[in-house]
Amino acid sequence: MSSIPADLKYLESHEWARLESDGTVTVGISDHAQSALGDLVFVEVPEIGKTVEKGAATAVVESVKAASDVYSPVSGEIVAVNEALSGSPELVNQDPYGQGWLFKVKPSDTAELGQLLDAGAYEKVVEKEAH
Amino acid sequence: MPFIPHTETDVAEMLRTIGVPSIDALFDEIPAALRTRALDGIPEAMSEMEVARLMQERADQDGRPLNFIGAGAYEHHIPAAVWAIVTRGEFYSAYTPYQAEASQGTLQLLYEYQTMMASLTGMQVSNASLYDGASALAEACLMAVRAHRRSKSARILVPATVNPTYLKVARTIAEGQNLKFDILPYEQREGTTQRSSLEAYAGQDITAVVIQQPNFFGLLEDVDAITDWAHANNALVIAVVNPLSLAILKPPGEWGTKGVDIVVGDGQPLGVPLSSGGPYFGFMTTRMEHVRQMPGRIIGRTVDLDGKPGFTLTLQAREQHIRRSKATSNICTNQGLLVTAATIYMSLLGAEGLEQVAAACQQQTNKLVDALTKLRGVKLAFDGPRFHEAVLQLDRNVGEVLEQLARAGIVGGFDLSQQYPELGQALLVCATETRTDGDIERYAKTLAEVMQ
Predict the structure, then answer these.
(1) Which of A72, A120, B249, B362 gives a 20 to 30 Å CA spacing to B122?
(2) Angstroms from A104 CA to nearest CA on chain B
(3) B317 touches chain A (CB under 8 A)
């Protein structure tokens, strides 16, 4: 069973989002997603300053068998990206909710956060996929 | 002889087993309007014997003319061993194998090809080839747009001295993806890219600058200065080169202070016969920092669980069969057979042999130019340094002269008057190592008669 922290919000496409105290939203992929992809070999992060829409393909995670888009859970401006991933993409596999974060968005509409799944709803998504 | 293994009885039995009346019924879910009907203008099927005869007759129409045309495809001597080895059963396939890792020999050959191309062009990494030089340029432009993330313009500067066919193909493939091509004029006296035209773009958002060396007129561009200008103006540099010329010219990896970013070209001069225009193969090399944006297959060397070396298709996740519409390109294969020929050609000749071929081409072209420009009404258009091709200007209609030469069994060169009307009656001529002094004498003598 993969880990699904209760304090995070999720997308059906397996991204997680965390509202930070400075008002930004940190985004990564879930433990389930990293385990389904297998060993990551490359992560393409967006450019800082880029404006993204909710649901827009914003980053790419590449494993030996697939390359998948990562969608932004909220609209806004990219204010930080995890530079450590360019040399160590395996951080996403090792610590998907911590050191393996992908990018931070300064949301233009915080109400969008309310439309995301909570841990319980996301767990159902994962369970449904397993069947 | 049919190569379809199922007899009609087999097919009928299979249909009966799955309970379907006909093969057509299997496609029922595709709306009739979307189905391909019989194609217009396609003749009835012919037998192998009939096709062989037809092709022989067509080949005979070419005759065996004495060839002085280059313009992107070159007649070189190919040692008999090259195609004797290529056509061995172990190598004889047009494609990278579907179960790639089960074909270690093929992968090793491609790995060696990549190593040779990277070293010849002075770059860090090569792919396993593309379709031809023209589409390789298009792919390089698309790649530059992906690789240069800070540039938003998708604007590519292309000198008018780049092979006009390559430019046409690049436009066809890339303009639909919103790339813009701006043409840089050439100096009317020198025949090389006008530097002042570049200055007009200083400080603007330019994605990449293309440089062809030698250029379409056979002339050497000031590649160091253009490369440095492009980098100083935050543009990437795409080099288009004749691989054979790199045996004697500076490799693009060493142009300017930093070297270029992407190198492409047509591999035909390396052991591939002219064959009425193809198939040839394109090559592409780049710096390691851009490798994930490079289209096409890449073979890597690795070790297995027991530490034994082996070869593998690497970075496949960015390719079409996995990444679908978001792949780096729609190229999902390579020109396996022709790359095999090129690899064997290069390994038989070695660095020294390639250099000798390039030098011999250069020498014979110089002799050709000397012999032809002695004639009244023939002059050299540009006298700068060049590699194995030159532009001549005639005081009469080039098309008519070429026709008369053809009647005497000589293909006299490429008529530039269509694509470069400003050059007047201009002819691009080429002599490779296959043109003897006697051949050159015959051309000069025949041209003198024609021009009388």
Answers:
(1) B362
(2) 19
(3) yes
Contact B281, B130 (CB under 8 A): yes
Cα–Cα distance, B127 to B115 (Å, whole number)? 10
> Residue B95 above 70 pLDDT?
no
Cβ contact (<8 Å) for B323 and A69?
no
**Cβ A69–B318 below 8 Å, yes or no?**
no
Q: Which two tokens stand for residue A2?
A: 């993969």
For B210, the token pair is 């293309």
Reduced to 3 states (helix: H, G, I; strand: E, B; else coil), residue A98 is coil
Contacts of A50 in chain B (CB under 8 A): none
Report the alpha-carbon distance of residue B340 to residue B186 in Å, rounded. Answer: 37
Give the pair of three-digit tokens for residue A123. 């767990």
| Contact in structure between B241 and B211 (CB atoms under 8 Å) | no
Cα–Cα distance between B449 and B376 in angstroms, integer?
A: 11
Q: B286, B276 in Cβ contact below 8 A?
A: no
- Whether the per-residue pLDDT at A85 is higher than 80: the answer is yes
H/E stretch holding B230 reads helix B223-232
Per-residue pLDDT tens over the stretch B224-264: 999 999 999 999 999 999 999 999 999 999 999 999 999 99
Helix ranges (DSSP H) in B122-157: 133-147
DSSP string, A33-83: HHHHH-SEEEEE---TT-EE-TT-EEEEEEESS-EEEEE-SS-EEEEEE-T
Confirm whether A121 is domain-assigned.
Answer: no
> Alpha-carbon distance B191 to B208, whole Å?
22
Residue linked to tokens 């985004």: A27
Whole-angstrom distance, CA of residue B75 vs CA of residue B274: 6
Q: Do B323 and A64 touch (CB under 8 A)?
A: no
**For chain B, what are the domain ranges?**
66-74+351-451, 80-344
Gap between the Cα atoms of B65 and B266, Å rounded: 24
pTM: 0.88
Fold match, B66-74+351-451 / B80-344: no
Other beta carbons less than 10 A from residue B118's beta carbon: 19
CATH superfamily of B66-74+351-451: Aspartate Aminotransferase, domain 1 (3.90.1150.10)
| DSSP alpha helix (H) spans, B320-412 | 320-323, 336-373, 398-407
Is A125 inside any structural domain?
no
**Which CATH number fits the domain that encloses residue A77?**
2.40.50.100
Range of the domain at A21: 9-106
Characterize the bridge pairing of strands A103-107 and A25-29.
antiparallel
Per-residue tokens: A74: 């909220």
Q: Token pair of B218, please?
A: 């056979």
pLDDT tens per residue, range B163-191? 999 999 999 999 999 999 999 999 999 99
Residue B89: CB atoms within 10 A of its CB come to: 6
Q: Which CATH architecture has domain B80-344?
A: 3-Layer(aba) Sandwich (3.40)
The label of the residue with tokens 């958002």 reads B205
Q: Which residues in chain B are contacts of A64 at CB distance < 8 A?
A: 316-317
Q: Convert B16-72 into a string of H (helix), E (strand) and C (coil).
A: HHHCCCCHHHHCCCCCHHHCCCCCCCCCCCCCHHHHHHHHHHHHHHHCCCEECCCCC
Q: How many domains does chain A have?
A: 1
ipTM of the complex: 0.75
Minimum Cα–Cα distance from A50: chain B residue: B150
